[in-house]
Amino acid sequence: MERQDLEIIAEWKERDPELKRYLDEHEEFERQLEEFNRRPYLTAAETMERKRLQKLKLAGRDKIESILAKYRQKESA
What we know:
- By secondary structure, the protein is mostly helical.
- The chain has one domain (3-76).
- Helices cover 84% and strands 0% of the residues.
- The chain is elongated.
- 8% of the residues are buried.
């Protein structure tokens, strides 16, 4: 993530509940994925759950990016 994005997040995380929610979800999905990645073997159900979490994390990342784009636009105006 770029320095500018990290600054925006630091500034707006506590003031924008939607941004905070997506950031918190993103961190939780990352934590769960790390747990799966530590395992030497995954069952079929675990593999499907890992893929589901990856998709949710990516969708959340897209939402975070759209929120950050809104704030970037405000800063440049």
